Amino acid sequence: MTEDAVRLRGLRKSFGDHEVLKGINLAAAQGEVVSILGSSGSGKSTMLRCINLLEIPTAGEVWVGNERIELVTDKKGISRPADPKKVQAIRARVSMVFQSFNLWSHKTVLENVVEAPIHVQKRDRAEVMEEARALLDKVGIADKHDFYPSHLSGGQQQRAAIARALAMHPDVLLFDEPTSALDPELVGEVLRVMRALADEGRTMLVVTHEMSFARDVSNRVVFLHQGVIDCEGAPQDLFNGGGSERFAQFASS
Amino acid sequence: MDFPFLLETARTLSSGIPLTLVLAVLSVSLGIVLAVLLASMRLWGPRWLSLFARAYVFVFRGTPLLVQMFLIYYGLGQFEAVRHSFLWPVLREPFWCAILSLSLNTGAYGSEIVRGAFLAVPFGQIEAAKACGMSTTLAFRRILLPQAVRLALPAYGTELILLVKATSLTSIITLMEITGVAARLISETYRVVEVFVVAGALYLAINFVLTRIVAFAEHRLTAHLRARPATRGVAAGDAEAEDVVISGERA
To answer: Can you tell me the distance from the alpha carbon of B38 to that of B110, in angstroms, rounded to the nearest whole number?
Structure first.
């Protein structure tokens, strides 16, 4: 049995007195596509952001591959990673695609894609450039390589952000509501790219409201409610009445 | 109008231009470093550093530059400790007192501009940098600072102009920059109007050039904020693509 790509154990996260995650156990196998569903405020984005430590868990374990991120608690009771260098190394292996794209606005599309491979991973510039062009071709915006993000549509920006994420050769791809900021007619082009990535066998954790993606593309659906996993399973089971009552209600609304 | 005299005055006052420029350039350079430091302390420093930065800005913005200059030029020498310190050879020179007071002053104003610029960089872009595994310093250097520079430039341009004009105050602590030379010329000729008109024109000329330089820099650095032209001659992705300034002018 191969090790899990991502594993969360007893994950808890509080913001002040408000506990957002109340003990999450979740594992994603290599090559698995996991859709994370839940109404707003259920903690699904927070959970995803704990995986690459954009949020620091209050308690629990985060494993990426066979590496565990050690947390220490300081005198004030605030937890933080024991080793920031290790956090950076793990982040470089886990790429994230954001709801609002978050492309660097002072860099062209191509520069956005090559930035981290060159400056974080210290890879060969020429090689990275060549690969970046291939990635832009793959997501269908090769002709836009010298555009600035502000000169692109939302769908194009998000596809550029996906190319930027792929350029890191990540073990895991995290998608945080990747189509929620898009006009309805632009959603399809982004979902097509994501579907192609799933077909390639990439490990993906996708927080989404796109039921069709959850149902048709993912191997597993996880439904969060008020900071706990309410139900999970294969999409064909869950969407055919195999989930909780609450999930049935959520899926039909 | 006595044109020969005006011309002669212009020639005489021109001898003060190099010193005016040196004062301005040196103070601006030191002031920018100070401004970035103060803004960083205020935004990300521990509480005591943040409070120090606030107090510093309050004092240096709230008191006249001339008073600060006098305090540094006449005041520092009053202290035995200063006179016996290794800094004295520098601090007894009016030139360095002028540089010190101008830099400390412009640093205070500049820090507020820089702070605003840092705050205006979208947080999501910093988060994206972190998510790519960038260290804090790398994200600062590659993402935050380049964008803050672009955001700060228009307001900083004004601060630069103010500083060029503020160098005229150094004539009071004996520096013979443009205004200093003008004052001497007036005491020789008693022709106040002509001399000061020429002096004013020289400052105007310097600031005109300065304005053009800032506008040029702004244009170069803000291609991403303009509407995209229909065609482009320069292909990105060449050897220069890494630089902050990218692919030069557009049509």
So the answer is: 9
Residue B249: exposure state from Cβ atoms within 10 A (0-12, 13-18, ≥19): exposed
The angle, 0 to 180 degrees and rounded to 10, between the axes of the packed helices B17-44 and B94-120 is: 40
Per-residue model confidence (pLDDT) at position B249: 39
Judge whether A33 and A198 are in contact, CB under 8 Å: yes
B235: left (phi over 0), alpha (psi -120 to 50) or beta: beta
Is A109 in contact with A160 (CB distance < 8 Å)? yes
Q: At what angle do helices B145-166 and B94-120 cross, to 10 degrees?
A: 140
User: Are A88 and B147 within 8 A, CB to CB?
Assistant: no
Band of residue A201 on the pLDDT scale cut at 50, 70, 90:
very high
**What average pLDDT score do residues B146-157 get?**
92
Tens digit of pLDDT for each residue in A66-118?
Answer: 888 888 888 777 888 888 888 998 998 999 999 999 999 999 999 999 999 99
Indicate the range of B27-36, B91-100, B119-128, B219-228 predicted with least confidence: B219-228
CA distance A1 to A10: 23
The pTM assigned to this predicted structure is 0.84
Query: Which chain A residues are closer than 8 Å to B147 by Cβ?
Result: 104-106
Other CB atoms within 10 Å distance of the CB of residue A233: 15
Residues in chain B: 251
Q: What interface predicted TM-score (ipTM) does this complex get?
A: 0.90
**Going from the N-terminus, what domains does chain B have, and what CATH number goes with each?**
3-250 (1.10.3720.10)
Please report which residue ranges of A19-153 form alpha helices under DSSP H. 44-51, 84-93, 109-119, 125-138
* Chain segment A117-136, per-residue pLDDT in tens: 999 999 999 999 999 999 99
The answer to whether the Cβ–Cβ distance between A168 and B132 falls below 8 Å is yes
Distances, alpha carbon B25 to alpha carbons B31, B174, B176, B199, in Å = 10, 19, 16, 19
Q: B225 to chain A: nearest residue by CA?
A: A150
Contact B115, B145 (CB under 8 A): no
**Do B6 and B198 meet the contact criterion of CB atoms below 8 Å apart?**
yes
Measured distance CA(A182)–CA(A158) in Å, rounded: 9
Nearest CA to A52 among A93, A9, A113? A93
How far apart (Å, rounded) are the C-alpha atoms in residues A177 and A210? 9
Of B127, B228, B241, the CB nearest to A151: B228
Q: Which residues of B touch A120 (CB under 8 A)?
A: 132-134, 138
Nearest-neighbour CA in chain B from A157: distance (Å): 13
Starting from the edge strand earliest in sequence, which strands make up the sheet with A18-29, in order?
Answer: A18-29, A4-15, A59-64, A67-68
